Amino acid sequence: MVGAGIVGASCAYALTRAGVRVTVVDRGGVASGTTGAGEGNVLVSDKEPGPELELALRSNTLWRELDAECGGFEWEAKGGLVVAETPEVLDALTAFAASQQGVESAVVDPRDLEPHLAEGLAGGVHYPQDAQVQPMLAAARLLRASGARLVQTAVERFLVSGDRVTGVRTGQGDLYADAVVNAAGTWAGSFAQAPLPIRPRKGFILVTQPFAVPPVRHKVYTAAYVTNVASDAEGLETSGVIESTQAGTVLIGASRQRVGYDTAIDYTVLAKLARQAVGLFPVLADAQVMRAYAGLRPYSPDHLPVIGPDHRLGGLFHACGHEGAGIGLAPATAEMITAQVAGGTPPVDPAPFAPGRFA
Amino acid sequence: MSYDLAVVGAGPAGLTAARVAAKRGLRVALIDGYARTGGQFLRGAAQPRLTGVEVKLGQRVWAVEKSPGGFQVHASATTTAATLLIATGAHDTVLPFPGWDLPGVLTAGGAQALVKGERIRPGAEMVVAGTGPFLLPVAVTLLEAGVRVKEVLEANRPSPLMAAALARNPSKAAEALAYVRRLAAARVPYRTGHAVVAAHGKDSVEGVTVARLTPEWRPYAWRTVDCDTVAVGYGFTPQVDLALQLGCELSGDHVVADDRQRTSVEGVLAAGEVTGVAGAPSAVVEGALAVHSLVGEPPPRLLAEKARLRRFARALERSYPVRDGWRDWLTPDTVVCRCEEVTLRAIDEARDLGAHDPRTLKLLARPGMGWCQGRMCGHAVARLTGHEPAPQKRPFAQPITLADLTLHDREDNA
Ligand SMILES: Cc1cc2nc3c(=O)[nH]c(=O)nc-3n(C[C@H](O)[C@H](O)[C@H](O)COP(=O)(O)OP(=O)(O)OC[C@H]3O[C@@H](n4cnc5c(N)ncnc54)[C@H](O)[C@@H]3O)c2cc1C
Ligand SMILES: Cc1cc2nc3c(=O)[nH]c(=O)nc-3n(C[C@H](O)[C@H](O)[C@H](O)COP(=O)(O)OP(=O)(O)OC[C@H]3O[C@@H](n4cnc5c(N)ncnc54)[C@H](O)[C@@H]3O)c2cc1C
Q1: Pick the CATH number of A80-128+199-299 from 3.30.9.10, 3.30.1360.30, 1.10.760.10, 3.90.190.10
Q2: Which residues line ligand 1 (CB under 6 A)?
Q3: ipTM of the complex
Q4: Are B164 and B314 a contacting pair, CB within 8 Å?
């Protein structure tokens, strides 16, 4: 397993349950990549009907099972609230919600659920299945519970013999395996033996002071988010997703920007996030911001994750490219990979995620 | 208005630089988050005249950014200048111990600031503990404020290195001797190889456990001392946040500056404790040298003086290190991060989960995520994972309200 982010850790957990002996290699240790620089939204609300929604719904069920089996990662089924500023957007949002097969939703007066929301919003849709985990803890707990060995070193290349991958070359020597899973997140495309079109999409998060009782209860975001996620625009997009954590802080995220692997702070972007947060929750105006951080989402050309056997080399599987939804989608990804590596039929059809689709 | 020079920090380094620069005809802004000039040590004790300097007090700088032709310094207002001098000093380094989260436990710098800056007596009966010669002036300041100082505890043993350095620096030796005499006159014991290893009390400090320490700081031979306040300080950590935001090169915990105080980033100067802890006189010399990098040549006398003071500082640093035995003072219930109330047990659990470095530890157990952003616990947390304490990037050097942050949406302002 290359990568100890949420995807690698979830795969290690599912594979060891299926009786596979797993070694995980990560150059930075558990959650040292994007998993340690994002949020922990487990969302079905933002997915348009299609393969990603299916994966998200399956994951939503699996996360609940993982919480019961393993736990210790602040799972909270708090529900999401999507708000619309205008009647037109509310109509679009309601139609979108109705099209999401298998997703529970209800049109609500947003201020019934979130009393501190700004006045004058046209309405909202409540999504009770939306939930939250603490992603770093989730990765660490699942990896620990898997019993897999973690080796902290960089994977330099895949070892190839004929048309099969037989292991990896690491900073600490060669490791041989019957199967190699590439869960290297944003960096998963960079192995010359089996390149993939995975690129970074930068995101910033703002973190406020801790509140004794945070003024935000659900995951709250504007309907504009739905259009941003699927967007192909190069430029900056910000649409506030606001939520509180068990530590009492409020997280405000996230921006989306394609600026390569640069994680430098850009105060203009942070200011936009702040403006949206205060726009939705005027009570946050006086809240102190303590921290901000940037992460790189791994995205593929069609914005779907890349899951399944490599189309060129045997013995190699990919589990990467989850963009802004890797936390939410990790358990169903792991279930799919486990079926493909150890044999079995996954409940979600893997075809739309096949790595060969860009070839 | 754009300035030739913006100085952040009005301690000995920044004050000197601002004054010299104004004298040389530069347009200077001097910015400090505190309500008075003077910095850590002077704490507004004397308010110098600063003719020709735009003094902006009560302005906590949360970020600095490069801008066309210079730099923007963001506080509650933004200042622009062609050159930036970072003179933000250092803050106390503290170590956790059982009970250090009780009201009545202060940092040495905090105790001194209360007396000098706010004219507040921190307690009636106090113990001063930690390491480094600055414990002496702190104890004397407290005595003069009417505090009954019961003991001054230096964790390290007397060092031959320090004795030699003092012999070469008669003025420092005289200063130290004056402090020691003042303590002796007040019958305050100064004990080396001792530390406060626990504080006790119901709602606030009622007493402390004092232990003798092995050379590696492992405690033995405990006794209790009644007091209502403790001041602890284990040296200083340079405040390098602004320099890190601009990408200045660091060495260990401090900013690298050349003999004219130029950092690795063009147009950014650094002087005083940010470039390494060396005391107020050294900060004064460096503040003056920083201006010489802009106008004229540095006088050889200043360069020699700086070299001498830095040598002395290195001897100090090597004589008063933090040694690893402090970990034995902790129990599983000891709070390591006070802001987030993270105990040693929680830290050990996170290490068990795979947190082998400070960043992962922070992600899994939250030490350093709270109000002080790891300034208090950063040293201990790094050591507990077996790492050298290293500065972390802080996009916000100071907290800022969301409302104030919205004002920095440049495209909207344009
Ligand atoms: C700001 C932001 C907010 C987000 N919010 C959410 C959210 O709310 N919900 C959600 O579901 N998702 C969210 N995401 C996305 C989510 O964080 C990612 O999709 C997810 O973390 C990807 O996990 P991963 O395991 O694939 O990658 P990573 O966590 O990046 O793991 C990959 C690992 O591989 C290692 N690695 C890479 N190359 C090598 C190599 N050559 N050798 C050894 N090791 C290597 C890295 O060190 C890394 O640890 C957000 C992302 C960002 C940036
Ligand atoms: C308890 C104690 C006792 C000491 N005793 C002695 C002694 O006896 N002899 C001696 O020589 N030295 C002593 N020192 C050391 C002395 O204080 C320092 O050497 C000296 O103050 C360093 O000067 P400086 O200009 O570098 O920084 P400082 O004096 O620390 O000044 C830095 C200034 O920058 C400001 N600042 C920092 N960050 C920001 C920001 N983001 N925005 C706005 N403003 C900011 C601070 O408010 C502060 O005023 C002692 C220090 C302490 C704490």
Answers
A1: 3.30.9.10
A2: A 2-8, 25-28, 32-35, 37-41, 154-155, 183-187, 203, 205, 253-254, 295-298, 320, 322-328
A3: 0.91
A4: no
Task: Give the β-pairing of A149-152 and A131-132.
Answer: unpaired
Which-ligand-closest: CA of B178? Answer: 2
Q: Does A118 touch chain B (CB under 8 A)?
A: no
Buried b (16+ CB within 10 A) or exposed e, B159-190: beebeebbeebeebeebbeebeebbeeeebeb
- Residue B234 Cβ contacting ligand 2 at under 6 Å: no
* Test site for ligand 1: of A25, A156, A297, A300, most ligand atoms within 8 A of the Cβ: A297
**Residue limits of CATH 3.30.9.10 in chain A:** 80-128+199-299
Average pLDDT over residues A42-65: 96
The reply to whether residue B373 touches residue A291, judged by beta carbons under 8 angstroms, is yes
The verdict on the CB of residue B283 being under 6 Å from ligand 2 is yes
A271–B409 CB contact, under 8 Å: yes
Question: What number is the average pLDDT over the span A18-31?
Answer: 97
Quote the CA–CA distance of A323 and A55 in Å, as a whole number. Answer: 14
pTM exceeds 0.90 for this model: yes
Phi, psi of A91 (to 5 degrees): -60, -45
Q: How far is the C-alpha of A158 from the C-alpha of A164, rounded, in Å?
A: 10
Residue B24: burial class (beta carbons within 10 Å; 0-12, 13-18, 19+): middle
Please tell me the distance in Å from B342's CA to the nearest CA on chain A: 12
Residues A113-134 have pLDDT tens digits of 999 999 999 999 999 999 999 9
Does residue A277 have a pLDDT over 70? Answer: yes
Mean pLDDT of A63-76: 97
Q: How far is the CA of A36 from the centre of ligand 1 (A)?
A: 7
The residue whose CA is least distant from atom 4 of ligand 1 is A38
Query: What's the gap between Cα A157 and its chain centre?
Result: 26
d(CA A292, CA B373): 11
Count CB-CB contacts under 10 A for residue A262: 11
What angle do helix axes B280-292 and B300-319 make, rounded to 10 degrees?
A: 140
Helix axes B344-352, B358-365, angle to 10 degrees: 110
CATH 3.50.50.60 intervals, chain A: 6-73+134-197+302-358
CA distance B73 to B243: 12
The pLDDT tens digits for B328-372 are 999 999 999 999 999 999 999 999 999 999 999 999 999 998 888
Q: How far apart are CA B401 and CA A216, in angstroms?
A: 17
Burial per residue of B38-73, b for 16 or more beta-carbon CB atoms within 10 angstroms, e otherwise: bbbbbbbeeeeebeebbbbeebbbbbbbbeeebbbb
Extract the tokens encoding B191.
Answer: 């004990």
Distance B36 CA to ligand 2 centre (A): 13
pLDDT at B414: 35
In the three-class reduction of DSSP (H, G, I as helix; E, B as strand; rest coil), residue B299 is classed as coil
Tokens 């045997």, located at residue: A314
Q: Say yes or no: domain A6-73+134-197+302-358 is CATH 3.50.50.60.
A: yes
A298-307, B44-53, B352-361, B385-394, range with the lowest pLDDT: B44-53
Q: How many Å lie between the centroid of ligand 2 and the Cα of residue B117?
A: 12
